[in-house]
Amino acid sequence: MSYSIEIKDLSLQLGKSNILKEINLSLQPGKVYGLLGRNGAGKTSFLSLLASFRLPTSGTISIDGEMPFENPRIMSEVSFSYPTDLSEESYTAADYFTDARRFRPNFDLDCAHALAKRFGFPLNKALSKLSNGQQSAFIATLGLANRTKIAIFDEVYVNMDAPTRKIFYQELIEEQARYPRLMILSTHLVSEMEYLLDHVLILDQGKLLVDQDYESIINLGVTVTGPVEEVNQFVKGRKQLNSQQLGQTKATMIFGKLANSERLIAQQNGLELSPVSLQELFIHITEEDGHFE
Ligand SMILES: Nc1ncnc2c1ncn2[C@@H]1O[C@H](COP(=O)(O)OP(=O)(O)OP(=O)(O)O)[C@@H](O)[C@H]1O
Fold it and tell me: What keywords tag this UniProt record (predicted)?
């Protein structure tokens, strides 16, 4: 059976700072959620509440109908993978896999070994002796092989090189196809990871600004491509997010939906319309004078 998460009026205050502000959210099993936000927006604080690392100041989190804090049934099915300092860790990956078999009911040792091989980190060397990227790959391996009903990844990819990140993305997709679960990926690598996401959450200064499925958020903007003059004419007076020009062809991203009549005009003028990138929308929505709706 799969788990969903219900969050009601969740707030977190640390010292005098309001870190998270009245977040209401419902997360469904089988979906991959992307958690985006600028530095200091509250992503890690939010995820640490979901993982029961701390209690909220007010509001509730319910997982599979129960409060997760100090709840072994729920917490054995929630994994939280984040950049961890392993510089003093004398245990090996193999030691951790042995422990995981005891604490994670669905941990799959074959999967862990296959991932270790694919990532190329050793099983029997102290984790402190692994490179930073190999340590990240080890943490990501545990997060996937645990096969928990809820898998949270908070920037575990930061130390991985590009080919290693690609392996992680491929493995994540395959794991999700084999054993669908509720996944949350917190990331700044928006353009690189957007294809993994079913749903997008954007936190901004502790508030949940966006809670939309990927397709609908992507349709909040349009890329207009065609001859420079026609593109300039069409986008005049609209909020422009980004422009690129190659010779006489220009592509400009605009914010806002187009009416059918406007789409027809674009077509008549030889302009091509396509979705915008999530990265550009994210920048626009969270910039100081940006807006959403
Ligand atoms: N222990 C703490 N005490 C006081 N304030 C804290 C504490 N931990 C984090 N904060 C503050 O909470 C805010 C949110 O931090 P958080 O780490 O959750 O953001 P983030 O979105 O994950 O940022 P980043 O993308 O930079 O990792 C920041 O302003 C940070 O300074």
Answer: ATP-binding, Nucleotide-binding
